[in-house]
Amino acid sequence: MVNFPRSEATGGTETLLLNVGPQHPSTHGVLHFMLEMAGETVVTAKPVIGYLHRGIEKLAENRTWQQVIVLTDRQDYVAQFSNEWAYCRAVERLAGIELPERAEWLRTLMGELNRITSHLIWYAGVTMDIGTLGTPFIYAWETRERIFDFFEAVTGARMMPNWMRIGGVRTDIDPALLADLRTFLERDFPKECDTYEALLTGNEIVVSRMKGVGVYTAEECVHLGITGPFLRASGLARDLRRDAPYGAYAKLDFEVCTDPVGDSLARCRVRLRELRESARMCIQLIDGMPEGDIAVKVPKALKPPAGDCYVRTESPRGELGVFVASDGTTRPYRYRVRSPIFYGLSAMPRLLPGHLLADMLVIFGGIDTSMGEIDR
Amino acid sequence: MFGSGLAKGLGITMRRLLAGPVTELYPYDHKVLTPASRTFLAMYVNEEGGPACKACNTCIVGCPDHVLRLEKDPDDNRKPLEFVVNSGRCTFCGLCVENCPYDALHFTPDYERATYDRGTLIYHLVHEGAHTGEGDEPK
Amino acid sequence: MSAALWLRTIVGLVALLALLAGVTLFGVWWERKFIGHLQRRRGPLHHGWHGLLQLPADMIKMIAKEDTVPTAADSLLFQFGPVAAIVPAYAALAALTFAPGIALIDMQHGLLYVFAWETMLPLAFALIGWSCANKFTLIGGLRAAAQLISYEIPMLLAALGVVLTAQSMNLTTIINAQTGWWYVFKQPLGFVIFSVAMLAEMNRSPFDLPEAESELVAGYMTEYSGMKFGFVQLAEYSVLLVGSYLIAALFLGGWNMPFLPASWLWLALKIVLLMTSTMWFRGTFPRLRVDTLTQMSWKWLLPAALVNIMLVAALALWLGPKVY
Fold this sequence. Notes:
- The complex is a heterotrimer of chains A (376), B (139) and C (324).
- Chain A is α+β, with helices and mostly antiparallel strands.
- Chain A has 15 helices and eight strands.
- Chain A folds into two domains: 8-48, no CATH class; 56-338, Cytochrome-c3 Hydrogenase, chain B.
- The radius of gyration of chain A is 21 Å and the shape is globular.
- The relative contact order of chain A is 0.19.
- Helix content of chain B is 19%, strand content 15%.
- Chain B contains three helices and five strands.
- In chain B, the strands form two sheets. Chain B has a three-stranded antiparallel sheet with strand order 2-3-5, with no helix packed on it. In chain B, strands 1-4 form a two-stranded antiparallel ribbon.
- Chain B has helices at residues 4-19, 58-62, 95-99; strands at 41-43, 68-72, 80-86, 105-107, 122-124.
- Chain B has one domain (31-129): Alpha-Beta Plaits.
- Chain C is mainly α and 324 residues long.
- Chain C has helices spanning 3-38, 54-64, 75-92, 110-118, 121-131, 135-166, 171-176, 183-186, 188-201, 213-216, 226-250, 264-284, 290-319.
- Chain C starts with a helix and ends in a 5-residue tail after the last helix.
- Helices cover 68% and strands 0% of the residues of chain C.
- In chain C, 51% of the residues are buried.
- Classes of the chains: A alpha+beta (376), B alpha+beta (139), C mainly alpha (324).
- Chains in contact: A-B, A-C, B-C.
- The interface between A and C is medium-sized, with 32 and 30 residues.
């Protein structure tokens, strides 16, 4: 039989060691939680990561600079374009490549659409975690499929676009496709957002489960290096798209969505507002899309000068940093990723104790993890 | 009022039910992929009806997953004797098609090649005239 | 007992088993279809007309499956669990009156009998949860026990209002008392309390905590496979049937329909509609948290049920049994 450890936290009675995952319906990938529980209350929580480790950082050292883009797609399979973009920006800065205006705008458009699909996956996941039978899940999937059809028409693949290139992008976007997308984003998407809000933050059961659960202050977030919607939901308006603009963000009019409360419900509200905000940015991008080249000519055997650089971007999960070092050859000397949600996950041992098992899923689902990005 | 959100949610789901399903009936309806779709590799034929490949090795150098294998004709350095695609290893990144200086490679619109035998995923694009597939007209 | 009585009992039992199996098969199919369409999918399509034969096929699969017992499980209790679940669920059906005179036994205290069997189920679920030696089933089983016991009290008190007005515990009498106004119009508060508590008794969303799939994998039935799982499912659907029947019989007039002749069809229609609405809730709502769940029962439903019963009693005294 199982031996249960005794804990002082429960007055000396036995606690229950519950292994949630790595194969569990709601650990989003293969995360393993070791929960020490007193009844249904979590006493200590320990996330165990590494089940999805594919060694992408090491693999990158054996590939040419262009081939690494294929790996970045798979790094965070929910926010593919953001990862490609971060990597390409790093290499471009290292090699001193200037991008044509249109390439920047196209990248920004795809990055924002990707933010929408990524947030939709978060929405789908969190609604499943709180126990709906997948109905809001499928509704989010519908919209995501619509955007993925656009991705497929542009890049040739739905999930793994491999579309951005060092020095630009691979294919141009057909104006007819852009017009279609604009109609969708302007006419149908806000209605979909209304639906999402009604089924999540508008539902009394959800509010009763999320309000005041997993409160984390901005100060604590900053101490752990948490960024992105998690931090913004704690009231700190930090967004690299506004604070250190890249791409075409400097020319866009958008609002940084924040919420002062810092609980799970606030994190939901921030992400749902970001959905609308991203759609608004996409419409601006489609309207203001400049003409011109989509890429500059870059040699196939690219050899950036020896040196290193670190580039920060705002991925859907927060601050995605990419460090690349070159020794002047055709392959990276070192490729390192600062995965934003790894820092969010490291808040779990502090956030979970004292909460119920059901709250654990709300908190964990609410921070929008992607194990592919954490383990790499 | 408590319960209005619940009622609204019920209304939303019922409206969606009445709007009808949106799924495709896959085995009966085949989705037509967009021209940009990256699926299985095929090779164009040249004017003489032979393979368009010039055996330059660029695709093999550019492939991140060692999917491709090329055997040159010993008599003609610019003619492939065999061009093998191990699709089981392929991640469909499209770098080979992008890198080809002669535009000899392209993707087929066909995507239904699921199989029980890994060996059948190895395609010989030049050997035995296997390169002729759908849309293999000369470019 | 006479031979005729024996024959009647056996035929009745077989008919009830057929009814239970039929309701389960139809229920699972209808649930898949209905929730599928809620999610803008089509649900089962391939076997038979719109996937109707999918369920018989599933049953064959369940029967043919290997009967696994976890090594650490308490083997005896593990084997006994599905029996403990199916027996009360099946026995409760005996007293249900489906049309005037159509019941296995039209018991004097039929309602009490049904409730008595239904209250055996939490015991079975807790037993199952304990015997598997799995932490998820343990939590699920204990949750089931806590939930079902908490909600039984408001449910019984709400039903008591009806018994008070109808002045009988016999289901036929209760239904026949509703030829005029249904009790849902006379005791709306009681109806709401009874429905909510019944939803919790049925383990249906938003009260599906014992088998919360996103938290506890499959709750107390995680370790079961094959026909044992089938038996637990059968018990679940039996509770769904009995619960829908009780709501229809106690509050929605049973086989009565205004301006139309009484018929068992109305009862069947009401049961199907009630089952469909539980599926509708299941497809829309997230589940409650365990502390909110029990608080709702003890802090809201129980006082409301007490108020309801006093109100009903006062009105019955004041207006007299003929009017109210």
